[in-house]
Specification:
Length: 179
């Protein structure tokens, strides 16, 4: 285990198994259609890569980048689009892929923005959901895991751009914030 990690809450095997399940569920739900996966960079990059390979209906990928955090561990509520989609989403079945739903402020803004572009459908897949933390209601069709309100890293999730490459999801030791 990485020395900055206090506890692994989701092992590599648990993540892999759940991603396969969500992929299978999406494949059933979207049977006969194709789906446009829109990942929110950078945290969801690893998740979308694995999820796309677990989906059997035709898939296209596109990416958005927004800023909501800077490098601190508290949501600011300020959302800025740093990179927009490359394609139009009008009349497409769109699935927004998120790494983690915390306050929901980022997704609320994003969903409102994407809905205005008139997709045929718009749903959310989040790998992690911090239960009880949402400050705005978000309806999320696919949720990987409900987790406690702790700051977690790994499998795409970072602290100050570090730890994204850990293959598991773990709670960061408080001391690691201070370095
Ligand atoms: P929200 O707007 O508060 O829902 O924040 C969502 C974004 O904050 C996520 O896409 C992450 O980039 C980041 N975030 C929230 N909680 C965590 C965490 O525990 N670890 C790492 N990043 C997090
Ligand atoms: Mg982040």
């Amino acid at each position: 285990m990485h020395p900055d990690i206090q506890e692994i809450i989701l092992s590599e095997e648990q993540v892999r198994a759940r991603v396969a399940e969500i992929g299978a569920q999406i494949s059933r739900d979207y049977e006969g259609r194709s789906v446009l996966l829109v990942a929110v960079l950078r945290g969801a990059a690893l998740f979308i890569a694995d999820l796309a390979r677990a989906i059997t209906v035709p898939v296209e990928l596109d990416f958005m980048a927004v800023s909501s955090y800077g490098s601190s561990t508290k949501s600011s509520g300020v959302v800025r689009i740093l990179k927009d989609l490359d394609e139009t989403i009008e009349d497409r079945d769109v699935l927004v892929i998120e790494d983690i739903l915390d306050t929901g402020l980022t997704l609320k803004y994003l969903l409102k923005n994407l809905a205005s572009r008139k997709p045929a459908s718009l749903e959310v897949v989040t790998l992690l959901n911090k239960e009880g933390k949402q400050r705005v209601p978000i309806s999320c069709k696919y949720i990987g895991f409900a987790i406690p309100d702790e700051f977690v890293v790994g499998y795409g999730l970072d602290f100050s751009e570090k730890y994204r490459n850990l293959p598991y999801i773990g709670i960061l030791k408080p001391a690691a914030y201070l370095d």
